[in-house]
Every structure is written in C-alpha cells, then in structure tokens.
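Changelog-adjacent note: as of this version, every example in the card shows the full chain rather than a window. The one below runs 168 residues end to end.
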Amino acid sequence: MLTYAIFSKADTQTFLAGLGGATYLGIFIAGIFLSMAATAPLAVGLFFSLHPESLLLAIILGSLGSVLGDLFIITLMQVSFQDECKHLRKTKSMKKMQEKIKQTLPTYVHEYVPYILAGLIIVSPIPDEIGLGFLGGVTHFKILPFSVISFVLHGVFVSILVLSGAAF
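Full-length structure tokens:
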C-alpha cells in the first residue's frame, strides 16, 4: 500500500519523468531492489513507472541488477555468518542429508543440486535473502552457473514487469 501511495503521487511521477537519461540506471537499481524482500515493492513500482525506450535493454539491465542483488545477498551471508555456516555444515543432520543425496542421485547429478535449489528459491515466494543466504552458507557452488540461472529466472519476471509498465 505504501508503494502504491508513493508511486501514485504526481510529484513522484514528475520526478521519474525528469530522470531522462538515467532511466536505465533506475531500472538497474530496481533490479537490485527486486532481489530483496523489503525493497521488492519499490522495485515493482519503479519498473511500472519508468518507461524506457528500449524494452530489451531494460530487461537485460533489470536482470543484471537482480543477479548483482543475489550475489550481494550470498556474499553478505557468507561473510556475516561464516562461523554459523561452518558449524551448520558439520552438524549430523546436514551430513546425513548430503550423504542421502550422494546415495540417491548419480554423481553427475548431485553436483547440480545447489543450482536447482537456487532456481527454486528464486522463483518461489520465499524471500531471496533467506534461501540464498542458507544456500550460500552451507553449499559450495560456482558463481557463473548460479549467475546464469539467476539472470534467466529474474529475466522472466523483469520482462513481465517492464512489459506491463510499458502497457500502462
């Protein structure tokens, strides 16, 4: 409701219209905001209010911003909760779960489990901070494959927002 109140004001619309060349910077920042639960409503408002000339460029920049936001979340969690994550990796239940995955899935499949979990977290209603923080803290995964998955999945959502904003 707060987001609606902010973006329905004429002053906000005038300010956003005055951004001119900074529209794409606003879209990139909206992408970063989209990754975080507390700022996601503001991101949606920005995507609806900023009317870029190139929708494709807007979708790419918004998706890149979302990837950057996800990587920030993972890095923050790894640094802030480093000791807790090490302890969690050593717990009996975590070792049991890892062993069950190794026993159940073929070797070439179980290395993709973190990426599958990341994709499910990104598309789920679970705030990215919770899921990606947990994922980044207890698993080891490569940044590039994760970034590609994040870019594609956020790209779908950003596309919907940018195209919806262009329609109004």
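Structural remarks: The chain has a mean pLDDT of 79.
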